[in-house]
Automatic annotation (TrEMBL):
This is Arp2/3 complex 34 kDa subunit. Functions as actin-binding component of the Arp2/3 complex which is involved in regulation of actin polymerization and together with an activating nucleation-promoting factor (NPF) mediates the formation of branched actin networks. Seems to contact the mother actin filament. Arp2/3 complex plays a critical role in the control of cell morphogenesis via the modulation of cell polarity development. It comes from Herrania umbratica. The gene is LOC110428619. Residues 315-325 have a biased composition (Basic and acidic residues). Residues 304-314 have a biased composition (Basic residues). InterPro entries: ARPC2, ARPC2/4.
């Protein structure tokens, strides 16, 4: 199975190209959308080629989630901690966006390795912003404490008008519950089968340290008190139990990213499975057509045989002789 990259490949390539050509006065104005309806806008003006403006639009949050100033809680602190002095947060952001960052590329370190790592982090702005609340809660889990002033059930946005839920009220574990929804009926069937196999794979050898995972058709008891819209899921509910060992040290970043993009991960493999089955079906149809074509009589030989026949014109006397015989 393939895990999604945490950074935007197009954004990273844009940043690398701009850094390599800082002395050239160019004008950039790029718009694009990536998975889960996260929109980006990059601008560079001719007057200030060292300044790059990066605007990000997040998925529309459902009513059960809490946004502060258009951003998840903890996002501002996470941005300042991740990027330091090269990034300035513009307030208010550009129209139609939740966040606008002003990057001063001239302040980048001359160390090529460190600079590349920082640009990758900038290209991972989606993870930094949307994963901020999850990161705050999991940091408390790593220290085996309970986050203060946190509700029993925390809703975090991960898709337009959809959320997943955390239960951070225990110092030794955090439970994450994902309602899985799909618009297409075929996708729903494939996702249900995929998730059942996904849960069963946890029992295989070598995965005993992975977070425990459960799947059910009905909402788990942990979601008691959630809204009816949040409890509607045509592909069931997936529950992960995260322990401190899953968020220690460098494992924290990977756990935050995997949880915040779990639905995109499932959807990616569902589409791959659907594409694979379509390919198998097309190949099967092509093989059947070839078999039918081989079963047809050879029209060319039939026509050739008909054209090579010759007939001898008999005289009236010869025809009478043949009829009498």
């Amino acid at each position: 199975m393939i895990l999604l990259q945490s950074h935007s490949r197009f954004l990273l390539q844009t940043l690398l190209n701009r850094v390599q050509n800082l002395e050239k006065s160019v004008e950039l104005d790029y718009h694009w959308v990536e998975f889960d309806d996260v929109r980006y806008h990059v601008q560079v003006s001719m007057k200030n080629p060292h300044i790059l403006l990066l605007s990000v639009s997040l998925p529309t949050p459902p009513r059960e989630t809490f946004f502060l100033g258009g951003l998840p809680f903890g996002a501002i602190e996470a941005i300042k901690s991740a990027y330091g002095v090269i990034v300035q947060i513009l307030d208010p952001p550009r129209d139609g966006f939740n966040l606008t960052l002003k990057l001063n590329l001239s302040k980048l370190s001359p160390d090529e390795e460190y600079r590349h790592a920082l640009l990758v982090k900038v290209a991972s702005v989606r993870e930094v912003v949307l994963g901020a609340p999850l990161r705050v809660i999991l940091k408390y889990l790593a220290s085996r404490t309970i986050a203060p002033d946190i509700d029993r059930l925390v809703a975090l946005v991960h898709r337009p008008n959809e959320s997943f839920f955390l239960l951070p009220q225990q110092a030794e574990k955090v439970t994450a519950v994902f309602p899985m929804r799909f618009k297409d009926s075929i996708d729903t069937v494939l996702a249900t089968s995929f998730l059942q196999e996904f849960v069963e794979s946890r029992r295989t050898a070598g995965l005993h340290n992975a977070p425990p995972c459960l799947w059910s058709h009905s909402p788990p008891l942990e979601l008691k008190g959630a809204t009816d819209d949040a409890l509607s899921a045509n592909a069931g509910f997936v529950t992960f139990v995260i322990f401190p060992r899953h968020v220690e040290g460098k494992k924290l970043d990977r756990t935050v990213w995997n949880l915040s993009t779990f639905h995109a991960y499932v959807n990616y493999h569902v589409k791959c499975s659907e594409g694979f089955m379509h390919t198998r079906m097309r190949r099967r149809v092509e093989s059947l057509i070839q078999a039918l074509n081989r079963a047809k009589p050879d029209q060319e030989k039939t026509k050739k045989a008909a054209h090579t026949r010759s007939f001898k014109r008999l005289s009236l006397k010869e025809s009478r002789t043949n009829s009498n015989s």
